[in-house]
Amino acid sequence: MFRLLVALVVCGMAFSDSMHDWIANGTRAYEEMRLDESAASFKKAVELAPDSGQARLCYGVISVFVYQNAIGDASTPPIRNRHHAPSQEELEADARRTRTAVREVNTTLGKQAEENLRRALEIDPHSLIAKAYLAGFYFWWEDAEEGNLGGTYRSRLDDAQRLYEEIIGRDPRDKSANYMLGVIDFNKAFGLVQKSGRYPQPLEDAQSRAALAAKLSPLVTEAAKVLSLASEIDPKDWFPMSYLMQIRLLEAYAAPTEEEAGAAKIKADALLRKIRSFPGMEPRVLGQNSSEDSVLVFDRRPGPVPIPPFPPDPKQMLPIGIPPPPQTTTPGRVPKQ
Q1: How far apart are CA 149 and CA 170, in angstroms?
Q2: pLDDT at 10
Q3: What's the pTM?
Q4: Residue 306 falls inside a structural domain
C-alpha cells in the first residue's frame, strides 16, 4: 500500500511538471503580461523537452518580446532637467552607454531568441510561424555599432529578407511576406537617401541625383512590385499603399530630371488620395478631434475569458503603415524610420 501511494505521488509530480503544463503556465502568464514569468515557464518546458518544436517556438517567441522591451529600455535617453541643455560630452557619453546596453541585450536575449527560433525551424523546417517570427526578429534587430544607432539602417535586414523570400517561395501570395519585403526595400532605399548627405534638403546637381537614382532603381522596382501585390491581395489594407507612396517620394527625390520627379510625385499623390479615402483616414488639422460618433463598444459572451494559444499571430510583428500627413504639414516629406 505504501509503495502504491509513493508511485501515485511520483506520477502526480511528473504530470504537474510536464512540458505541456509549463507551456500552459507560460501562456497564462503572457496573457496577463507577466513576460518574465512567461519566459521562465517556457524555458522550463525547453529544459524538460529540448527537442520539442513547440517548446522551442514558445521560448523563442517570448524571448523576442522580452528582447524588444529591453532594447526599448536600453535606447531610452536619461531623464534630465528640462532647463538643462546637455553638452556634447554628455550626449556622447549617453551614446556610449546606449551602445553598451544594446550590445549586452543582443548577446543575451537576442542570442536566446535566435537560438530557440532557429532550433524550432530545425525540428520543423515547414513551420511558417517560426520562420515568420525569426524574420520579424531580424527585421527589428537593433544594431549597436557606433554611428549606426538610432535606425540609420538595420544590420540584419538581409537575414529578414531571405526568410520572407522563403515564405514567398512556398506561397507567392502571402500578404504579410510581400508587405515586409516592400518595407525592407524601403528601409534600404531610405538609408541610401540619408547617406546622400543632403536629405531632407534637395540634391541640387543632376549628376548626384542620377547617381542616387541608379542605386535606388532596383529597390524601387522590387518594392513597387511586392507592395502592389500586397495591396491587390487585400485592397482594404492601407499599410502597403503607404509604403508604396513613400517609395515614390524617394524616387521623386532622386529623379535626375524634373519630368521624372513629376511623374513619381503624380503616383505618390494618387496613392495619398486613395489612402485618405479609407474610413478614419480623412485629413484633419492638427489638434482637431475625431467625430463624436467614433466610439468603440466592446462586448463578449458571459463566462471566463478563453486563453488563446501561444504564440500569437506573427502579424503583430509587422510595422504599421505610415499615416498620411495632416493638413498643416507639407505633403511629400518622408518620415524618418
Answers
A1: 35
A2: 36
A3: 0.82
A4: no
